[in-house]
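the two lines:
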Amino acid sequence: EDQVTQSPEALRLQEGESSSLNCSYTVSGLRGLFWYRQDPGKGPEFLFTLYSAGEEKEKERLKATLTKKESFLHITAPKPEDSATYLCAVQASSASKIIFGSGTRLSIRP
Amino acid sequence: SAVISQKPSRDICQRGTSLTIQCQVDSQVTMMFWYRQQPGQSLTLIATANQGSEATYESGFVIDKFPISRPNLTFSTLTVSNMSPEDSSIYLCSVNGQDNYGYTFGSGTRLTVV
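prediction for all of em together
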């Protein structure tokens, strides 16, 4: 069964303190791995799609990487406005739907 | 990427009643997806809606409780029927983006059942 596990469940950082969020996955052939940001009361906002091991993508202070078993979302020198829940999702090669992990609630203190 | 308009944005409903949520996309899409997000939880897929065919429901979700319509390639509705307080959640529609834009989500409908 396809599965996505995110850790930690919650992370509190000081402004400027870099860290990483983890997304471990089990899927029968990976078609794509997605990272989303979700602010309270809003729908998920697309950040990245990764397709194959070794791939990396960057956007401002965020960098996503992918291996055959997990993905990391690295946050460099975060700011308070980076506070949100970050969701990871995977799509199997044989499926049209995507499966979400439980998310990491990130809080950045000024 | 596609732009999704979802209505209503929020509602408070009496138990035993039904609510229909609308999802309008600014471009034609083959598949539309309906998700539920319970308080403090992640997203759970309810069903996949294809135009011209019956929706495909995930385990734990049934058509009698969550009937879906998909009359054309830009519009879908999800009805939450015979509501109970356990149905209080955020309901989201989603479509597959193009190329590297991933799946796009509507802003969600926050439903409270009292």
